[in-house]
Write a structure and sequence with these properties.
- The complex is a heterodimer of chains A (341) and B (902).
- With 341 residues, chain A is mainly β.
- Chain A has 2 domains: 30-194, CalX-beta domain (Immunoglobulin-like), CATH 2.60.40.2030; 201-340, no CATH class.
- Chain A contains 4 helices and 22 strands.
- In chain A, a hairpin with a 5-residue loop joins strand 17 (264-281) and strand 18.
- The longest helix of chain A has 16 residues, at 2-17.
- Chain B is mainly beta and 902 residues long.
- Chain B contains 7 helices and 47 strands.
- In chain B, the strands form 6 sheets. Chain B has a 30-stranded mixed beta sheet that branches.
- The longest helix of chain B has 19 residues, at 2-20.
- The radius of gyration of chain B is 29 Å and the shape is globular.
- The two termini of chain B are 58 Å apart.
- Classes of the chains: A mainly beta (341), B mainly beta (902).
- The A-B interface holds A 14, 17-20, 22-25, 27-30, 33-34, 36-38, 60-63, 70-72, 182-187, 300-303 and B 263, 287, 289, 314, 316, 318, 344, 346, 367, 369, 371, 404-405, 407, 447, 492, 494, 499-501, 531, 534-535, 537-538, 541-543, 545-546, 548-549, 551-552, 603-605, 607-611, 664.
Chain lengths: 341, 902
């Protein structure tokens, strides 16, 4: 028996010399890797007279256990957990309670209804004095939304505010019973109050102004063939919206269509929408540079990028945009649009 | 068909019986009179006839002779010829053990010990072999500072080795890449522990485990036919004597680059038991621990990038082998042989990647553990009947490469850098503050683990029927083999990126592993300590995002399972015509293969679209005639010629039907399960003269014509997939295909002997060999496009060095020996690029090693070895020699200790 013990000891000694486990940390992987709750977005913003805003909490994608979704999918929790969050770092005001008046939480049950419609309580608790709150993230759900009612008067004025008015929201912890669930407590959701005396807001182009109409067609017809072929008689209105992080150019046509939504059929005007994200926007001034980038989906499924660069200038509610577009190697001339707020 | 085979067998046995009517058998062992060591390769001849045989590794011999009174002569290089008279009755089996005396007196007191004794064993076997082969005996291996089987093989003429971290790993024979060589242990092929290939990394096999290594350069019909370059057989040890033989060695050493010690030990016990020494048992165990490293710079010519790589490794080799045999009587014996080897490699790589075009510098650390295990179990029996010899064997062998972790983390800093490759062997680097870890943000951490398995189950038998043709002896031999192979590869890969909040690198840095890197020319700063990052990962998983799609692609693309079943049979005859030996025969091999893997489809947007299971199969047959002639010009000189047919199976990576398509780039790659093996006709001519004082001068020519040479072909504008219903068109599909020819020709010369003919240098010996090889292969022209896809161009065969050689000078005194050894590998094409300018070549390399020993007495001696004395780097260049793309230094390392034989 003794020789066997010696042999075993010798083998163990030699195995130790391999340094297989020397200074080694075993990572938490595969099924042991926890579910992660995180903020869905990095931020949002809306005009200063808006009466609400919201942030979303979702689960991170995981490997589809059935192997169908190769890019991964959310695997809902098997029991309810409580997520704690905190509103902090507010700028432009001194008291949270003066701006955040109330809060509620819900999730989408389907495209036409929410948990609120079905009287499902997510036990949202929020103390505007401390900025701390908590909410239930229920089992079987992929994402929930926490919505704050805000004071529409606090920031609504007629002057241009160059100073930021914002707040930040961060997840702080999660109470889970037996599930492996953690929160990402480093990411923040930043909400910005956008000044409607600045670049942000909705602008309209005078469709009856032949020259302006043609300039618009020349500018955005570059990336959209439907726009290129439009006549003034086809168009009801043209608007350009400067929103948080993105620009929307919307053409409402005179032609209508019937749209069914949640069982209700409605007759609406057709719209052509071009969306792009800002690469650059000097939003703390009444004039400056801007650049936005978007994508067009081609027939073969590939996506092609377009870019518009130029400058803006605000004069008494009127916006002058000077832009040059580039798409697939083609460029427009520098085109000036004049729009009314 | 079966009836014809049966009739043929009956005729053969009748013929054999008739021929054997007045005959008997003589068998026994030839040993050294003084040391009792077996004399391997000794010739035993019936005086005045061509009836002769040679002793095997254990000094054993047997042969059929005419009954009556016979004179037997025993010859062995370095020994006096011994002649004795024997009286043998018809059908009698006589055991004749002979102890031979050395020829010291004739050699002016030269002592035939140590290296010369090992060399004698090898050369005697080589001289008496039926085919062209080189043999290295254990004693000879022990005289060179070669810790593993690959490095021991580098001393053989025509053998080139590829190194990894300065240590020999893969073996090429006669200018053909490693996949053209088959590897066996105790005569049966061993599986490769690696996933993609068939060949075995021989650094996993400690040389201390081996009794000898045989390199056959021309195949006989009783050998596996899948070896174009040659066949390497590693032979383990067996028990020799009733006295317990215990031998071993213990030692340590030092790696100069890392400033760390190494450790080695070996212990062997062998003994035969019982009154008639019927039971033999041998156990061998050895262990080698080596802490090593390298300083390496690598350049990416296309992307204008430079990498600084700082390696630190711990490698161990554990070898266990056993042999047990039982001789029931002089006619029948059974044996069992087992070998287990385990090679482990813990590699930590710290590196920078300078990317001036992107304005970025990456800083990374990799931590990987890999173990390669090979297990080989052989059980068989040998029977000597009055009219035939029968042996049969079962073998189970298993190779495994287990990588339980392969972790690498990367951080990126947006730091501009300027690279100056005016002197590409020592590029200049300018990058402000690049060692400042606070500037590096987290990019990703990848956790991988893989398992490759390869299992062989083999059964075979051989039957030998001796006969006489006039006064000349001959032997008809036939046999069959079945082998079932199962190979698989599985991978797990989890790569995480920053979900938000992971701190910069300065939170995870550690101490440098050595004082300076690359002679102090480049600063490495404080390296990333991946274990600190992993601790952080485990504590803060919410900040890390799994790359689910990448995981699906990585795990599907490389994984596969394969089955390969072989059936083989052969018939051969060996006939002595006075001084001419003719050996001829034919071998038939049929292989059936099936594979399963995955088709990974990437859509037009560059996203993973789908993963579809795919499978493939193929069968192939080979009929391989083999002819060998050996003419004994004098008792010490042979002229040999051989005409042989052989083939080489494709690597698994080329045939598994894994497919990947990237619709975004309109490119795809696909395995080719219909790929046929490369076939070859081999012509060999060899002259060899042996010196009675132990030595050889030899010269040989060889020419190999390869058909169905495998090369990577681009199928321009193809439908995809290549079989079945196309789902895409206009795709450039890269696939390994047959079709082009290649040839390789060369010259081998060797000279070994003790300089006894120069009185002042009588204690010196030289060992010289040189091989010149030339090859050419036709491949698809790399400038071809869809309009001229069939255009071809000529290249050298990858892995083929024009010049390979060894030179060694040794002093062997009564107690003291000293040896210096040079090994030269000429430059060779390492990787075929997309154009001639992108071909990657390994630069020629000359390594100088030295070893010495002092004997305290006949049983104990001290030894010392120094390797890579001149700090030769590994160097790669792209296109031409002025474009160095890799230069890796290891410095020198040493070993010293004690060897004993109790």
């Amino acid at each position: 028996m003794k020789p066997l013990i010696y042999l075993l000891f010798a083998v163990m000694l030699l195995t130790a010399c391999e340094k297989k486990n020397h200074d080694l940390i075993t990572p938490t992987l595969e099924a042991d890797f926890p579910q992660i709750l995180l903020l869905s977005d990095e931020g949002d913003g809306d005009l200063e007279d808006e009466d609400k805003f919201s942030f979303k909490i979702r689960l991170a994608d995981r490997v589809d256990p059935e192997g169908k979704e190769l890019g991964g999918k959310i695997t809902p929790l098997t029991e309810d957990v409580t997520v704690h969050f905190e509103v902090s770092s507010f700028k432009g005001f001194t008291s949270l309670s003066a701006y955040l008046l109330a809060a509620k939480a819900y999730y989408e049950v389907d495209d036409c209804s929410t948990s609120e419609d079905q009287n499902i309580d997510l036990h949202l608790v929020f103390d505007p004095m401390t900025g701390k709150g908590s909410v239930t993230f229920p089992k079987g759900v992929e994402e929930i939304e926490v919505e704050f009612e805000t004071s529409e008067d606090l920031f609504d004025d007629d002057i241009f505010n160059a100073n930021a008015r914002s707040l930040e929201i961060r997840l702080t912890s999660v109470d889970a019973k037996s599930q492996k669930v953690v929160v990402n407590d480093q990411n923040t959701f930043k909400y910005l109050v956008l000044d409607d005396e600045g670049i942000y807001g909705e602008y309209e182009l005078d469709v009856n102004n032949q020259e302006q109409f043609q300039r618009y067609i020349n500018l955005f017809g570059l990336v959209n063939d439907d726009v290129k072929n439009l006549k003034p008689a086809d168009v009801e209105e043209i608007k350009i919206e400067f929103q948080y992080g993105e620009l929307k150019a919307v053409i409402t046509l005179k032609e209508t269509e019937e749209v069914e939504e949640c069982g209700e059929v409605e007759t609406v005007n057709k719209e052509i929408e071009i969306e792009a994200e800002f690469e650059e926007l000097e939003d703390d001034a009444e004039s400056g540079e801007l650049e936005f980038v978007g994508e067009v989906e081609l027939d073969n499924g590939l996506k092609e990028e377009f870019t518009y660069k130029g400058s803006f200038k605000l004069v008494e509610g009127q916006l002058e945009l000077i832009l040059q577009g580039e798409y697939k190697g083609d460029e427009t001339a520098e085109i000036t649009l004049n729009l009314n707020k | 068909m079966k009836l014809r085979m049966l009739l043929f067998g009956i005729l053969l046995l009748m013929f054999g019986n008739a021929a054997m009517a007045q005959r008997g058998i003589i068998k026994g062992r030839i040993t050294d009179h003084k040391s009792k060591e077996p004399l391997t390769g000794a010739t035993v001849v019936v005086t005045g006839t061509s009836n002769a045989t040679a002793t095997d590794l254990n000094g054993a011999y047997q042969f059929y002779v005419n009954s009556g009174t016979l004179n037997l002569t025993v010859r062995y290089l370095g020994y006096q010829d011994t002649t004795l008279t024997v009286k043998l009755n018809s059908d009698e089996l006589k055991v004749l053990n002979i102890a031979m005396s050395g020829r010291q007196r004739n050699l002016n007191d030269v002592i035939i010990t140590g290296y010369t004794q090992g060399q004698a064993k090898a050369l005697n076997q080589q001289k008496n072999a039926d085919n062209i082969k080189n043999i290295i005996a254990a004693d000879q291996i022990g005289r060179f500072p070669d810790p593993n089987a690959a490095e021991a093989l580098q001393r053989v003429p025509g053998v080139n080795i590829e190194r990894d971290q300065g240590e020999g790993r893969y073996v090429s024979i006669r200018g053909l890449a490693p996949q053209f060589t088959n590897m066996s242990i105790n005569g049966e092929q061993i599986p490769s522990p690696e996933a993609d290939v068939r060949f075995v990394a021989l650094d996993a096999i400690p040389s201390d485990q081996l009794a000898s290594i045989e390199v056959s350069k021309a195949l006989t019909p009783d050998m596996d036919g899948d070896a174009i370059g040659g066949a390497i057989n590693l032979v383990t040890r067996t028990a020799q004597s009733k006295n317990a033989a215990i031998s071993g060695s213990f030692g340590g050493g030092h790696n100069n680059l890392m400033g760390k010690p190494n450790l080695q030990g070996q212990l062997q016990y062998g003994q035969r038991f019982g009154k008639d020494e019927k039971l033999g048992l041998l156990l061998n165990g050895n262990y080698y621990h080596n802490d090593l490293g390298s300083d390496n710079i690598e350049r990416d010519l296309d992307d204008n990038e430079l990498e600084l790589r700082d390696y630190a490794l711990t490698r161990t080799r554990l070898g266990l082998s056993s042999s047990m045999d039982y001789r029931f009587n002089n006619h029948h014996e059974v044996y069992f042989k087992g070998l287990y080897s385990r090679f482990t490699d813990r590699e930590q790589r710290r590196r920078y990647v300078f990317k001036p075009e992107d304005g970025e510098i990456e800083k990374l650390m990799k931590d990987r553990f890999e173990s390669q295990s090979v297990l080989s179990l052989n059980a068989g029996a040998k029977h000597t009947f009055t009219n035939l010899l029968v042996d049969y064997e079962m073998q189970y062998s298993y190779g495994e490469q287990d990588t339980p972790y392969d972790n690498e983390a990367a951080f990126i800093a947006e730091i501009p850098s300027v690279l100056d490759f005016t002197n590409s062997r020592s590029p200049k680097l300018t990058a402000a503050d690049y060692t400042n870890n606070s500037l590096y943000g987290f990019d990703e951490i990848g956790y991988g683990n893989t398992m490759a398995k390869d299992k062989n189950l083999t059964a075979k038998f051989n039957v030998g029927v001796p006969y006489k043709l006039g006064d000349n002896d001959g032997m008809i031999k036939f046999g069959a083999k079945v082998r079932s192979k199962r190979k698989s590869f599985h991978i797990r890969q989890n790569t995480f990126e920053n979900l938000g909040g992971v701190p910069n690198l300065n939170a995870f840095d550690g101490d440098p592993v050595k004082d300076q890197f690359y002679f102090g020319r480049y600063a490495m700063g404080r390296p990333l300590a991946i274990n600190k990052l992993m601790t952080y990962f485990n504590s803060n998983p919410g900040q890390f995002e799994l790359q689910v799609e990448d995981k699906a692609i990585d795990e599907a693309l490389e994984a596969y399972t394969a089955k390969e079943d072989l059936v083989a049979g052969y018939l051969m005859a060996k006939q002595q015509f006075n001084k001419l030996m003719v050996l001829g025969g034919v071998r038939y091999e049929r292989t059936k293969v099936t594979y399963n893997s995955s088709d990974v489809v990437i859509d037009e947007s560059g996203d993973l679209d789908q993963i579809v299971p795919v499978s493939g199969s193929s069968n192939y047959d080979f009929i391989l005639p083999q002819l060998h002639l050996k003419y004994e010009l004098t008792p010490l000189s042979n002229l040999r010629a051989a005409l042989t047919w052989s083939y080489a199976r494709p690597n698994f990576a080329e045939i598994i039907p894994a497919q990947e398509i990237n619709r975004e780039d309109r490119e795809a790659s696909a395995g080719n399960p219909a790929l046929q093996p490369v076939s070859a006709i081999n012509y060999d001519l060899m002259y060899e003269h042996y010196f009675g004082s132990v030595g050889i001068v030899s010269a040989g020519l060889f020419y190999k014509r390869l058909d169905d040479f495998i090369y990577k072909r681009i199928l321009y504008n193809s439908p995809y997939p290549l079989t079945g219903v196309p789902t895409a068109t206009g795709i450039d599909v890269t696939q390994a295909q047959n079709g082009n020819d290649a040839n390789v020709k060369g010259l081998e010369v060797a000279f070994q002997r003790r300089l006894t003919f120069i009185p002042l240098l009588k204690d010196f010996s030289v060992y010289l060999n040189y091989t010149y090889t030339h090859s050419k292969a036709q491949i698809q022209n790399r400038n071809a496009g869809s309009e001229n896809a069939n255009a071809t161009e000529e290249i050298r065969l990858p892995g083929q060095s024009a010049n390979v050689g060894n030179a060694s000078l040794a002093y062997e005194g009564k107690r003291f020996s000293l040896r210096s050894s040079l090994n030269f590998n000429g430059s060779f094409l390492s990787e075929v690029g997309g154009s001639k300018e992108l071909d990657i070549f390994m630069k020629s390399r000359l390594q100088l090693d030295a070893s010495g020993s002092i004997s305290i007495n006949s049983r104990i001696k001290f030894f010392a070895e120094v390797m890579n004395i001149t700090n030769q780097p590994l160097e790669l260049y792209q296109g031409d020699q002025s474009q160095t793309i890799q230069r890796e230094f290891y410095s020198f390392w040493s070993r010293f200790g004690i060897k004993f034989h109790l």
